[in-house]
Structure formats: C-alpha cells, structure tokens
Amino acid sequence: MAAAAESRHRNFKNAAIALLVPLPSILFYISFLTHYHNPSPLSDWCLHHPLLLANALFFLNVNCLFWVIGILQSNHWMIDPYWTVIPVMLCHFFANHPSATYNWWRSWIVTLLTWVWSFRLTHNYFRREKWQWGVREDWRFADMRLQYAQNWWWISFFAIYLSQQIFLIGVCLPMYAIHSVDKTFNFWDILALAICLTGVLVAHFADTQLHEFVTRNNMLKQLGEPMVPNLDKGLWRYSRHPNYFGEQLWWWGLFLFAWNLGYGWTFVGALLNSLCLGYVTILVEDRMVKQEYRAEAYRLYQKTTSVWIPWFKSSTLEPKDKSS
Predict the structure, then answer these.
(1) Is 272 exposed, middle or buried (0-12, 13-18, 19+ CB in 10 A)?
(2) What angle, 0 to 180 degrees and rounded to 10, lies between the N-to-C axes of helices 23-35 and 50-58?
(3) Are residues 203 and 251 in the same domain?
(4) Considering its fold, how many domains does the chain have in total?
(5) What is the pLDDT of residues 154-193, one digit of tens each?
(6) CA distances (Å), 285 to each of 95, 190, 203, 230, 307, in order?
(7) 160 and 38, same structural domain?
(8) 56 and 169: one domain?
(9) Distance from C-alpha of 264 to C-alpha of 268, rounded to nearest angstrom
(10) Are 240 and 206 within 8 A, CB to CB?
(11) Scanning 172, 210, 224, 280, which has the fewest C-beta atoms within 10 Å of its C-beta?
C-alpha cells in the first residue's frame, strides 16, 4: 500500500512539473503578442527574428530549465514526452507570430497534421510507460549516466538538451518556411500531405505491433515460459525498423511542403534526424544481439530483412552440398 501511494504521489508530482514547466515560454510569448505594438528594443528584436526567438526560448526554457529539473531529480525523463509536444508548440508559434505570412489552407493542414503526429507519438510514449510520468529515462541516457559517472551532470546539458535543440528546431524548420510564404496550394502540397499521412500510419501500426509483442513477451516471462526471440510479423516482416521508417516519412514529407515554397535549405533538419536515427538503429541492434535468448534469431533477421525501407525478405541460407 505504501509503495502504491508513493508511486501515485510521484506520478502526480511529475505530471504537475511537466504541465507547468513550459509556462515561462508561453507567458512570455503571449506578453509579446499583446505588447509588440509598443516599441522597445526587445519587442523589435522578437518581431523581426522569429526563428532566433524560437531558439532563445528553447535554450532558456528547455535546455536550462529542463536540465536543472533533470539534475534535481537525477532523471532526465522530461525531454521524451516533450519531443512529441514541442513541434506542435513551434507550429503555433510560427503561425501566430506577427511577421507570419502564409496560405491559410497549407497552414491549417500542416497544423492539423502536426497535432495528429503528436497525438500518435504521445499516446505511444505513455502506453509504453504504462501511463506513468517520469518512471524512467531513455535507456541511452541511462547508459551515458554510467559511462560518464561524475561528469554526467554537465555533459548531460550538451548530450541531451543542446543536441535536442539542434534536432527539434531543425526538423521543425519547414514550419517556419510554411508560415513565411503565401503561395497557392498545389500538387506538391497534396503529395507532401500524402507522404506525411503515410508516415504517421506506418509508424502507428509498427509501434502498435511492437507494443503487443513486448506485452506478450512480458506475460510469458511472468509465467516462466520461453519468450519469443524476435518480432517478424506484420510490418516487421518487411523492415527491421518500420517505426523509424514511418517517422522519417513524416519529417521528409514535412520538408516537401517547405521545398515547394523555395526553402530547400530546410532539408538539413530532416537529414540530421535521419542520421541520428541511423545511429540509434545501430545501438538498438547491438543491444538485441547481446541478449542471449534472441541473439541467433536476430542475426538471421538482420540477414534476411531490410533495415528501414519495407521490402520482401531475402534468403541467405546456403544451398546444401549435393555431394554429401
């Protein structure tokens, strides 16, 4: 009973922290929108530099405040759920900035798509965490905590938060582009819409299949029965990481909106994110082959199944020696 009560208390406390922590940025931005007509050096700078303002708010509110809270809690969990929320906030930030100019249909569609993407990823995060706030931090952060030991307190600022600013602001650059040009909605927007929706759907079904697989294996483990070594059904039959593939479709589809508006340079965000997911793929697969019960099955899976892009299985089985 005491343990359950402590768990509920921790969950409520972390939920309250997570809901209150973005208030400094939100209140500052509302104040700016209300008073930007009154000339001042700060309001003029905010008015003429929306992208720099977004970076400044991210640095102060996420990098610094989230980092301090993570240090105090000895758990940098909060950046994970906010990865699913910050793009929505940035989309509305750019859309409501006084200097914004855009096609209403394109803005409305991208905003709605971003909400759909965010809802899917947020649901998947809390489903995976059993609807708890801050129970654990990302396993990669936990590994780095052990690796850097006493230096982790300051390295975490760069490894977790400053790096997240580069990735999150980067992948959201198309939202800035979309709210910087008023151009007629056209074929390329329809194609970008289709790619984004396909990405969200692929990621949803892939994550759902993975969740069901993990849940089933956890039940087998509790019953003392052998666990299934590998997920190779559904979308996972055609790709070792279909969830990552879906996520990449989403971000590259978003970039296509920006490319159509003449902002081809915004590809850097999607490219950095793809490179990061490539590195994460290597880390995940290294973990898989280190687990004794699944190592052999996963090595065969690697040989026969595409890494990201879904494709038919290939056979690597050597032909039998006819002379034997």
Answers:
(1) middle
(2) 150
(3) yes
(4) 2
(5) 999 999 999 999 999 999 999 999 999 999 999 999 999 9
(6) 39, 36, 19, 12, 10
(7) yes
(8) yes
(9) 9
(10) no
(11) 224
Interval 108-117: pLDDT, tens: 999 999 999 9
User: What are 205-237's pLDDT values in tens digits?
Assistant: 999 999 999 999 999 999 999 999 999 999 999
**Sequence-distant (≥ 6) Cβ neighbours of residue 78 within 8 angstroms:** 17, 18, 21, 66, 69, 70, 134
Structural domain of 55: 14-101+139-181
Are 64 and 175 part of one and the same domain? yes
Please say whether the dihedral angle defined by the alpha carbons of residues 239, 245, 247 and 253, taken in this order, is positive or negative. Answer: negative
Dihedral sign of CA atoms 178, 180, 182, 186 in order = negative
**184, two tokens:** 């007629």
Residue with the bigger pLDDT between 79 and 322: it is 79
Rounded distance between C-alpha atoms, residue 269 and residue 173, angstroms: 7
- CA dist 28 and 240 (Å) reads 44
Cα–Cα–Cα angle for 122, 124, 233, rounded to 5 degrees: 155
Query: 231: which 2 tokens?
Result: 């997920």
The CA distances from residue 138 to 86, 232, 301, in Å, are 18, 24, 25
In a domain, 321, yes or no: no
pLDDT digits (tens, 9 = 90+) for 95-107: 999 999 999 999 9
Please tell me the distance from the alpha carbon of residue 18 to that of residue 81, in angstroms, as a whole number.
9
DSSP 111-157: HHHHHHHHHHHHHHHHHHTTT-SSS---HHHHHHHHHHGGGHHHHHI
Q: From CA 112, how far away is CA 95, in angstroms rounded?
A: 12
Pair 33, 166 in one domain: yes
